[in-house]
Write a structure and sequence with these properties.
The chain is an alpha/beta fold. It is 24% helix and 24% strand. The chain has three domains: 51 residues; 236 residues, TIM Barrel (Alpha-Beta Barrel), CATH 3.20.20.70; 37 residues, no CATH class. The longest helix is centred in the last third of the chain and has 14 residues. The protein binds iron/sulfur cluster (2 copies).
């Protein structure tokens, strides 16, 4: 085989030219030459082949708030990398041209070369984002390991829909993650998105257990997940993991195959009110006029203020020795991580 071989698969008994991928809950059975639902992992000569290994669709330097990560190195820039393909098929995908298609122009870059570029970019962190990084887990593990060696912080932006063993492998090399929790209904995940709610919830639990800094995003999509009952389910689950998890509630705008009207800002404010007292940090995205302040939980003064990607940190200080953020007004630890 001239292309790299994948991990997390088995040969199907009595059918030596057929393999079953065990990376995500789809557990695709791949005959010779066929691709899985993610369009990037292929059965080939009785093994799992990775013909898109190292195929990079985009590289950009972004504000870390764009991931979105609000409680990790606020105001910094991050070297951001995208692949192609995705194991979900969200009908509202805003990046469908790289997540649902593979016939685009790539750059082919090895993990070591990529991380060298990241280290030379003037940033001190690398994010895997845009499409779904986890379907390229073999590349990802190498790149994350390489980034660690060079002292770069590692960030994952993902749908979190993979099985437990690979989830542990990738989380062990991840410093911070923003994971989508797109719905709290198993049938919505299964029938509308092509995913698995239980796997995503387990991924979130593992991230907490493994001390990865975790933030969660829910795009509130008109006609899909926009009931208060569904928001209530998400809040119950997240607050059970930790009331300190930042939750990003984003407004949807029509994209790809979903043509319902945009999310009404009032609904996001209504959900934010519903959450009060159960999740400490709820931020609203894709709407105008929301400052998304972070307040000190001890003295109530403003630590961070955000206007789009313009960030001010009137009350946040970093102890350069310990790399711990604290409130400059009362001196208590801030809920922000380095
Ligand atoms: S990662 Fe891809 S090939 Fe593997 S089970 Fe999931 S969708 Fe199928
Ligand atoms: S998981 Fe993300 S990248 Fe994949 S289809 Fe859904 S929105 Fe698009």
């Amino acid at each position: 085989m001239n292309v790299p071989e994948g991990r997390y698969y088995r040969v199907v008994q009595d059918r030596p030219s057929t393999v079953q991928c065990g990376l995500c809950p789809h557990r695709c059975v791949l005959k010779q030459g066929t691709f899985g639902l993610c369009k990037v992992r292929q059965g080939f000569e009785g093994a799992l082949a990775l013909p898109f290994y190292g195929s990079i669709s985009s590289i950009s330097i972004d504000p870390i708030e764009k991931k979105p990560l609000y409680h990790f190195r606020p105001g910094s820039s991050i070297f951001s990398v995208g692949f192609v393909g995705c194991n979900l098929h969200c009908p509202f995908c805003q990046n469908w041209e790289i997540s649902q298609k593979t016939d685009i122009t790539f750059r082919s870059i090895s993990p070591a070369e990529l991380i060298k570029l990241a280290a030379e970019s003037g940033t001190d962190a690398v994010a895997f984002t845009y499409s779904e990084p986890l379907v390229h887990i073999e590349y990802l593990l190498e790149a994350l390991g390489e980034a660690k060696k060079r002292g770069l912080a590692t960030v994952l932006v993902s749908n979190g829909c993979i099985n437990e063993e690979p989830a542990k492998d990738v989380l062990s090399l991840t410093d911070a993650a923003n994971i989508d929790l797109k719905s709290f209904r198993s049938d919505t995940y299964r029938n509308q998105l092509g995913g698995d709610l239980a796997a995503v919830c387990r991924f979130l639990e593992l991230a907490r257990e493994m001390n990865v800094h975790l933030e969660v995003t829910t795009l509130v999509v008109t006609g899909l997940n926009d009931s208060l009952a569904e928001a209530e389910g998400i809040v119950e689950f997240l607050s059970g993991l930790s009331p300190e998890i930042p939750w990003h509630l984003s407004a949807y705008h029509p994209a790809y195959r979903w043509h319902e009207g945009s999310t009404k800002p009032e609904l996001l404010f209504q959900i934010k009110n519903l959450v009060r007292g159960r999740l400490s940090y709820v931020y609203l995205g894709n709407i105008w006029g929301e400052t998304n302040q972070t307040l000190c939980s001890h003295c109530g003064k403003s630590l961070v203020e955000r206007s789009g990607y313009h960030i001010e940190t009137p009350g946040l200080e970093l102890n350069e020795e310990t790399k711990a953020y604290f409130c400059s007004h009362c001196g208590k630890p801030a809920p922000i991580y380095y």
